Solute carrier family 2, facilitated glucose transporter member 9
Amino acid sequence: MWNVLLSFSGLVALIQLLFLPFFPESPPYLLLQKGDKAGCLKAMKQLWGEGNYHTEFDDMMKEKAVTKGTKIMNVLEVLKEPSVYPQLSTMLLLLLSLQLCGLKIFQTANLQESMIPYVSLGVAISELISIIFCSSIIDHFGRRILLWGGYLMMALILALLETSLLLSDQFLWMRYCSVTLIFLFIIAYGIGP
């Protein structure tokens, strides 16, 4: 019943895709990352209704003052930091265990058994590329645009993937199209959600 589980996550993604444009950016993101005080207050009012948010706003301003001297590290600097090794090893273990999840999809696409480990390796590389790429562009575009665009791309890719899996018995080249779409789905997921 893996297809039911996969479609359930697609349903949740569709709901988020429909409602995400109506929500504002995160107030801490607007204030701390973008420096937009007016946008922060507007987002607070939109999220929490009318009221006095000076206490929360002052707390965010204090946090901004505390983090002002803190250097924002890039991906390579984070990887060199020993304090993140436990979290990094947990994340790597999770990513490696996820490689076992795609085997059924690759079998459904009628790939040769000998090709599946190489395709799984390609999936892992796609995940790594998307994580590095996302961490370098998230400050430029913001979370909202990446989430919305990621979910939109994922929905489109899933529709194309289902079509290519249905046609893989009739057209041999559709098997490779399915694998490419899986790679694109993982990249869209890593960059967006």
Remarks:
- The chain has a mean pLDDT of 78.
- The radius of gyration is 21 Å.
- Residues 116-141 form the longest helix (26 residues).
- The CA atoms of residues 110 and 172 lie 9 Å apart.
